[in-house]
Amino acid sequence: MKRNVPEFAIVGHPNEGKSSVVSTLAEDDSVRVSPTPGETIVCQTFPVIIDGQEIIRFTDTPGFQNPIRTLEWMHAYKGSDELIVHVFRETHADDPEFRDDVELFSPIAKGAGIIYVVDGSRPLRKTDKAEMEVLRLTGRPRMAVINCKEDETEYIEQWKGEFRKHFNSVRMFNAHRATYAERIELLETLKSIDQDWHPALVQVISAFKKDWENRNMQTVDIICTMLADCLTYSVSRNFTEKTGEDVLRKNLREEYSQAVGKMEKQAHQRIRKLFRHNIFNCELPAHSILHEDLFNEKTWQFLGLTRGQLITAAGLTGGALGAALDVAAHGLTFGVFTAIGGLAGAGWAAFGGGKNLAKAKVKGIHLGGQQIRVGPLDNIQFLYILLDRALIFYSHIINWAHGRRDYLPAPVSKNESGKAGIISQWDDSSRRICTAFFSALRSSDDAAADRARKEMKKMLAEALQKISTSERRYGLVMKE
Amino acid sequence: MNKKWQIKDIVDLEYFFHADETGGEEHAEDRLTQRDRDIFLRQIRPLFPEQVSENREEKHMRPMMIRSWLEQRRHLEKAQHGPEAVLPGDIFSEICRFLIWLFFMTGLICGGGAAFSLLRYTGQAPLNISVFLGWLVFFQIFLIVFLLLFLSIRALTRSLGEKSLLFSLLSRMFVRMMKKLGNRAMRKLSGHQRQSMEAAAGLMRGRKKIYGSLFYWPIFILMQVFGTGFNIGVLGSTLLKVLGTDIAFGWQSTVQFSAAGVYHIVKTLALPWTWFVPPEIAHPSLSQIEGSHMILKEGIWHLATPDLVSWWPFLCFAVLFYGLLPRLLLLIAGIAARQRALSRLDFAFSECDSLMRRMKTPLLQTEGRPVPSEIKTETEQEPEISPRADIPPKEVQEENILTVLIPDDIFDDCKEEELRERIRALTGTDFQEKIRIGESREKDREAIRKIRQMQSPDVRADVLILQEAWQPPIREFLVFIVHLRQNLGDLSRIRVGLIGKPRPDTVFTPAKEEDWNIWQQKLRTLGDPRLHPERLVSHET
Q: Is A406 an 8 Å CB contact of chain B?
């Protein structure tokens, strides 16, 4: 059984990003990726197990340590071509200098296909040519992957030219792209190197796609639930003359924002877990807007819809100007006041800005005193902010393979609209769905709420899929 | 494998869905995924070998697949909690059975009682048939017409049924009974299970938007069972009364109906059964109607007994055709509607979506693990390659010559002038010769021999190897240095002049700091005191 499992050995010069390629292919963040060359000293396999059955296997190998000597040995070798790798390993088994080379040939000796990884941002050297020739002499099916560790592209043609002599196919590995998209593309290319492996790869690709879709759907569920929870949350307390209304009001507001923040955080943690950050403590990119709190000025400045869009959004619901004013007027609290006030300038004041986001309401006489309530927040911008943050979080999470490496993308400053999020680029129909979802949360019409939620889920699923295949990095803002 | 859905299955389904709620706990979710995929692969896929392919989900397959899943879940539940484990669906059907009997018996008793009391005959005056007809036939016809009207309005608006007072009252009663009856069974269950049980019980009220009118029909059926029982009771007790006692029926009216008018009405009413029942039984004849007309002022002595008893078959037929049969038809219609509502369920709500997803998504594991190597390496540490020399270095000789070794890759790009300048800046001396290395090992050995020949007791041969720092220090290179050292002896100074990535105009670019560190570390492992990395180009230049 085991013999039939197609295996791909990821080989190359030390420190060319082999482990990055493996971790992308296998989606496993336990791969040790280190800037120190020679970090990998033993082979590590990454079996792809579908329904308990191993379908294919990727093997991370140590880098070549003696390419020229190996090539010389191979040129001098006189035996049968099929046995060349076996004999090489036997001959050098006890030579400590060849420890890594012997190890790296072990999957190839067992019949593995070869994925040769190079750093395309550096010039081609003799040792590389020797390695390619060595790999050619093994007679195994092989493809080359060009992984540009730096932004230089002047050597790529040189590499490609050389690769054409030695490899069945060549692929650029794009570290800036989302892990998922890159994985699927890599696997697709693998199909071309040997027909025998085609069915297994087709199965793996389909399983990966389904698995991803499934995780996206779960993410959508988490996001929708979080939105509904946060947007309908409120806290209320009774108060008497003694308690002091102002103090209570302030405390409640504090309590409210903490509780909502916690709900959001929990949802993010659940999303994180879906994408297998078990070992690696995934950290957000340094420039991520998510470093700011939910109710922080910056968050409200960079995420959500622009003021113009907000008013259109209100118009979409049919509320026309009245609703627009309403939406606009509720835009502040927790320091957001200054942010948006500053942003909108005089126009803002005309809208009568200055009311609180989560209005503290005196709800009426209760036995033993009056009741005061904070929330639920009836500002649609809050939905967009939560949504933006969730989507940005998702985009960070699915890019984990690169986030922890030295592929630091340049932080993008906010776009023309003044926003750095995803939502502000959505079209009217998407925003209409958000608006319907938002109002459905408050209505008692079960059927409408169900419909709105379904629509929302469908739209979010599409959005996640788009982010999955996008090269853009979202939610990064320049630190001032 | 074509099991039909029943309401008890829906109840169990809800129970299991609730039990599966994990609150987002990661391991719990993994467990569910594992379990459901397992159920799918082992139990469901073999049942639909051709239709169920991994990539296709036909709409009509979904109810069947979920039904099979439910079956498996029940097995699992029974396996886990023993065969006596009670599922809410069982409790539901038990209650249904019980209620059907209860309603039927109640109907029977009510009907029987009503007929008995309406047929109380003391012999003083014949019983007025309009009272009997009014209560037991016309009123029932009115109720049925009302019900049909209600159903048609409901069919038009779809929402009335959900807000029906009767429905909500009855369903509340139903839920309460379910809880009460289930309580004994539930005592053994865990808290979470008990909650799931209650969730399943609450489903009739809470999940209308998903199941639509589904839970309306059991109540509807119960009502019809009651009606059926009622009419059987009426018929039974009427027949009993007629057989066991003597009853005289007559008719009276203040309005001066003619006997012919009454006959016309009676004949019309009897239309449903006149076609197969002989006319003398089907309804009283005109003369019999005339003969049973009571006018209390005139007394009843002149009424003839055959005329007075001629009414009873007509009354029985009226109850049968206007009371019992419509109820039976409605009962059948109710059962059919329930089946239709069940077969119409598309199971497209989110829990089912998640379930289908769990079943249809292949389980993926891609966790890395080390390969057990067949060829044993004794240690995990760096194999030792250290130069031979233990001899303490002697005094530095006065005269030395410097040879520069340049890798083949950059030899041609290395401009002599610039090289000289760089080396002079670094060492303060000029180099004697530059040699190409890395073409082949044979040529490298030759180069080493050549440098050794330059040495004499008075002249020390120093070496500077030009090296691109971005290339990681591989063993091959280190071995070359070791050979060099072995050939030159311990006194020669070996420098590794590190440079960065070449530019189009020059190969002399500064090495990156991290590359520099790596080289420094690696060279140090050789333990050679006269081996040094050097920055051939500093960052400032």
A: no
